[in-house]
From TrEMBL:
The lineage of its organism: Bacteria, Pseudomonadati, Acidobacteriota, Holophagae, Acanthopleuribacterales. The keyword Metal-binding applies. Its EC number is 6.1.1.16. A motif ('HIGH' region) lies at residues 31-41. It holds the Pfam family DALR_2. Binds 1 zinc ion per subunit. One of its GO terms (cellular component) is cytoplasm. This is Cysteine--tRNA ligase. SMART domains: DALR_2. Belongs to the class-I aminoacyl-tRNA synthetase family. The keyword Aminoacyl-tRNA synthetase applies.
Length: 494
RNA sequence: GGCGAUGUAGCCAAAUGGCUAAGGCAGAGGUCUGCAAAACCUUUAUUUGCCGGUUCGAGUCCGGCCAUCGCCUCCA
């Protein structure tokens, strides 16, 4: 079976053929670390983490490069505010980001290069562009000559002439053409800088990705990804630099993820609708965040609002409650055989999962297939017909299968009791519930039930439900769990 | 203004021309239960923003219109 990938360059879904059979080389534009990571970064990281997991699952040897841009104007500005050297400040942000990402189940990329450690490669690439007539030095800066690259605009379908006539292009006397962009910036007094053939300075924005992708993945590699908002100018400029320098094709497939919206608008600091990962993780359980991101196709935008999480919590509770049942069965029947009883058809979750994931990483449909597995398990557990002894093995086998699939999405890999307790903590906090008080009311109810004072017991239960607390009488005693909030429509007026 | 994306049920969201338009959430009915909860079963779009066209066949392709969003300045 072949995987299909939507390629932004051709605007078509194409069969994925790696440059080298069995290997995947992927570059995703990572962070410019001038501040704490936000959930937009998290979305991007989660999506490429999922793609990497999936290719590994399919047997590819994956080299996934995700860079840190640790030198730029904003970093210098912020570091100065905090009275720190720029690279010290950016390293702190990198360390924070790694912690934040780990909370969301994002593994570090295979290689996470930093700009500050690749200055020689960058200088070499710039020199090559100058030598080939694609770049020029001007008062200590070096600019890429857009006119020298006829294909400019091929990714974003922009016409350089129309861009030039646009009023928003900054006029800069040092440039030959308003579209030319900086490869190297002369250092101002006191700024972090490196020695180059053009004097003291530092790299411009786009060049670092071209240089580092080439170093770790070669001049031509398989997948280049990033947020949709990077298509122009960032990725367009990368293409110009790399292709002009080497006359080669650079990335074979371009993929772009959607963006996080808040109140229907792109999240951004200037709009004040901004969540750092730390904000988000404080408000919502990390797995609920991950689920919320993967329950849409990666190219879609996601509106990040309270109501989006009702669904996520409902599902996380369902998944983990089911796994809790499965774990109890496993304890009871550790050696159960996976041969299904005669009249039971076992769904092939894994194949269905692969089929939809091969179709441009359709995580939405993948979750649908996983749902079918859960339903099968719960159905079989509830059924009276085959004795548990006979069906336990099948239940365990299907549970293992869906757990593998969920693992590729980065979900449900924790012990269920622990995960359920964590989710409960979030819901308790969100609803402002006092567990001690709940326990007290529950004790009252237990007493009422023992006296068969059903009305009183039911009244207590109803009052707890009104507070979002579901009460469950089980043979082991009475348990309770907090339910997610009823969904409200996202307020798109803002 | 240019470029691009999106518009599918009360809400979220799949479906890359072809069997009765997935799945989830919320709602309704049922099984189980003292009653519930959880779980399970049944049910909820004669129709995909609007208008035209291509086709044996359109949510899907083409044209026009409307609406929302993004990029064109730093952005994941």
């Amino acid at each position: 079976m072949t995987a299909y990938v939507y390629n932004t360059m051709t605007k078509k879904r194409e069969p994925f053929e790696p440059k080298e059979p069995g290997k995947l080389s992927m570059y995703a534009c990572g962070l410019t670390v001038y501040d704490k990571s936000h959930i937009g970064h998290a979305m991007q990281a989660i999506i490429y983490d999922m793609i990497r997991n999936y290719f590994e699952f399919r047997g590819y040897e994956v080299t996934y490069v995700r860079n840190y841009t640790d030198v730029d104007d904003k970093i210098i500005e912020r570091a100065a505010l905090e009275n720190k050297p720029a690279l010290v400040y950016s390293q702190e942000m990198i360390d924070l980001s790694l912690k934040d990402m780990a909370l969301l189940g994002v593994k570090p990329a295979t290689i996470e290069p930093k700009v500050s450690e690749h200055i020689p490669e960058i200088i070499e690439l710039i020199q090559k562009l100058i030598d080939k007539g694609h770049a020029y030095e001007s008062q200590g800066d070096v600019y890429f000559e857009v006119r020298s690259f006829p294909k400019y605009g091929c990714l974003s379908n922009r016409d350089p002439e129309e861009l030039r006539s646009g009023s928003r292009i900054e006029i800069n006397q040092q440039k030959n053409d308003p579209l030319d962009f900086a490869l190297w910036k002369r250092a101002k007094e006191g700024e972090v800088s490196w020695t180059s053939p053009w004097g003291e300075g530092r790299p411009g924005w786009h060049i670092e990705c071209s240089a580092m992708a080439e170093k770790y993945l070669g001049r031509e590699f398989d997948i280049h990804g990033g947020g949709r908002d990077l298509i122009f100018p960032h990725h367009e400029n990368e293409i110009a630099q790399s292709c002009a320098a080497h006359d080669s094709c650079y990335a074979r497939y371009w993929i772009h993820n959607g963006l996080i919206l808040v109140d229907g608008q792109k999240m951004g600091k200037s709009k004040g609708n901004f969540y750092t990962i730390q904000d988000a993780v404080k408000a919502f359980h990390p797995e609920a965040i991950r689920y919320t991101i993967l329950k849409s196709h990666y190219t879609a935008n996601i509106d990040f609002c309270d109501s989006a999480f009702h669904d996520a919590y409902s599902r996380m509770l369902y998944f983990y409650n089911t796994f809790k049942r499965v774990e109890e069965i496993r304890e009871q029947f550790p050696d159960a055989e996976a041969t299904p009883p005669a009249n039971i058809t076992v769904p092939n979750i894994k194949d269905a999962f692969i089929e939809v994931m091969d179709d441009d990483f359709n995580t939405v449909a993948a979750i649908r297939e996983i749902n079918a597995g859960f339903k099968f398990i719960n159905d079989l557990v509830a059924a009276k017909k085959p004795k548990m002894k006979q069906k336990a093995g099948v239940i365990l086998a299907v549970a293992d299968e869906i757990k593998t699939c969920l693992g590729i999405l980065g979900l449900c890999q924790n012990p269920s009791k622990q995960a359920l307790a964590e989710i409960q903590e979030y819901l308790i906090r969100a609803r402002n519930i006092d567990p001690a008080e709940v326990e007290a009311r529950l004790q009252e109810r237990v007493a009422a039930r023992e006296n068969k004072e059903w009305q009183k017991a039911d009244d207590i239960r109803e009052s707890l439900i009104a507070d979002g607390i579901a009460v469950m009488d089980t043979p082991q005693g009475t348990e309770w769990q907090v339910l997610p909030h009823k969904p409200k429509a996202c307020d798109k007026e803002a």
